[in-house]
Specification:
46% of the residues lie in helices and 15% in strands. It is an alpha/beta fold. The strands form 2 sheets. Strands 5, 6, 7, 8, 9, 10, 11 and 12 form an 8-stranded mixed β-sheet that branches. A 4-stranded antiparallel β-sheet has the order 2-3-1-4, with helices on one face. α1 crosses α5 and α5 runs parallel beside α7.
């Protein structure tokens, strides 16, 4: 079993077939029955190469006489893997990175490429200065793009929207793995009890300072194998998503709509605020995603969730009027690049139709909110077109709603109305996230 070859196959499926990195990686680890050490190494290679792709390609261009576009995709991936190990992994000797890359080329029947790979990687190991970044004074955007391996259009958007200092903070946060955060299932247990149970399996767990009943985990191995997970005492959920549910403020006996629910985390958290009473209607457009919600609800012992297929954009069929409604809409995902590093390279990140779709979902859902009820709109992106502009437009065009102040007690980096909050990874240690809340007038 060659761990580098496994990493190569995963990267190929992400680049060639548009596979999701996390899904492809998890499936591959299970299929190859990798132990903790090997799975950690493969994960580091896959995420590292995806995170630094632009930087790695910039380096290849400095050493290769063949234009980047003309290099075979697998050869290019092998070069990225090799360069990443040489320049960004401390524990891999240069000789091993070079030799294993050549072996990898031959293993994949790229015999002509083996010498090419060997030549470039050896040149890098011998060079006194491994690579030089572009001149930041001549072209700052290009300099930042290469340094932080992030496309210029994303950086440009962030600078225009949030300023240079905040943008640099976001860019700095794009490397490494995100903090693993678990929500304690208070229907079954308490945070203190789960901490004790996890300690028996040598898992470090400490309470989050940001929100109650939330644990920051380390040294977990595969979470699915933990006893507390199997027994439904916890599930993985970022603090930003939990704050979103806190803003919704579901209470026992409420009727709650979660119109873009999958994979269901916010519905599960809502059920806990409601002590598993009342009714939560969790909708999605895919049957297999509803199955996922139902399976997890069963594991967690939650009985208040009802799932059904429903298109939040176009479906106008009758629903019960809700006390609380949540629109966690499909978005460009610019707030979760750390979790899904390949997002930054997508071609359709700035699709003008996306904010329109989000707005239609918000408007459609607002029809099902009771007088005095709460409507929350959220995204996991950092783009005002999808965030503040939709929220502002909604209030202008829906005079039957008023802004509902968010009292979430978290640090704000930008000036926003009280009913809106943008969470930034560098300040809040969460996903990049946007929450806005509205109350239907009586």
């Amino acid at each position: 079993m060659n761990t580098r070859n496994i990493a190569l196959k995963i990267l190929f499926s992400v680049e060639q077939d548009g596979a999701y990195s996390a899904l492809a990686l998890n499936n591959s680890i299970k299929e190859n029955k990798l132990n903790h050490l090997d799975s950690s190494f493969v994960s580091a290679l896959v995420y590292g190469v995806l995170e630094r792709r632009l930087t790695l390609d910039y380096i290849i261009k400095q050493y290769s006489k063949i234009p980047l576009k003309k290099i075979d995709i697998k050869t290019k991936l092998i070069l990225r893997l090799g360069i990443f190990q040489i320049l960004f992994m401390d524990k891999v000797p240069d000789s091993a990175a070079v030799n294993e890359s050549v072996i990898l080329a031959k293993k994949n029947k790229l015999y002509k490429s083996a010498g090419f790979v060997n030549g470039i990687l050896r040149s890098i190991t011998r060079a006194e200065v491994k690579y030089r970044l572009p001149d930041g004074k001549k072209d700052k955007l290009y300099y930042l793009s290469v340094k932080y391996s992030c496309p210029t259009d994303i950086i440009s958007l962030w600078i225009k929207s949030y300023g240079e200092e905040i943008t640099l903070g976001i860019l700095e946060s794009l490397f490494g793995r995100p903090q693993l955060t678990a929500r304690v299932n208070t229907i079954k247990t308490s945070a203190d009890e789960v901490i004790k149970e996890l300690a028996k399996e040598n898992v470090n767990a400490k309470k989050s300072p940001l929100i109650e009943n939330t644990l920051l985990l380390s040294n977990t191995g595969s979470v699915e194998t933990l006893r507390a997970y199997k027994e439904g005492k916890l599930y993985i959920q970022d603090c930003a998503s939990q704050l979103c549910v806190k803003a919704l403020n579901p209470e026992p006996g409420d009727i709650v709509l979660d119109v873009c629910s999958a994979p269901g985390g916010k519905s599960f958290t809502a059920a806990q605020y409601m002590n598993n009473s009342g009714e939560i209607y969790a909708f999605d457009i895919y049957e297999h995603k509803l199955k996922l919600i139902n399976d997890t609800a069963k594991r967690l012992g939650i009985t208040s969730i009802k799932t059904a297929i429903r298109n939040a954009d176009t479906d106008t069929s009758e629903l019960p009027l809700s006390d609380k409604a949540l629109c966690d809409v499909p978005c460009s995902g610019l707030g979760i690049i750390l979790r899904k590093p390949e997002i930054r390279y997508k071609d359709d990140l700035f699709n003008p139709e996306l904010p329109k779709l989000q707005y239609r979902i918000l408007c459609n859902t607002s029809e099902y909110v009771k007088a005095g009820g709460t409507l929350v709109y959220s995204t996991c992106t950092l783009n005002p077109e999808e965030n503040q502009k939709n929220a502002e437009k909604f209030l202008i065009e829906h005079t039957d709603f008023e802004p509902l102040p968010l009292n979430l007690n978290v640090e704000r980096l930008i000036d926003e109305p009280e009913n809106m909050l943008t969470l930034f990874p560098q300040a809040n240690h969460t996903d990049g996230f946007f929450i806005s809340a509205f109350r239907k007038r009586n």
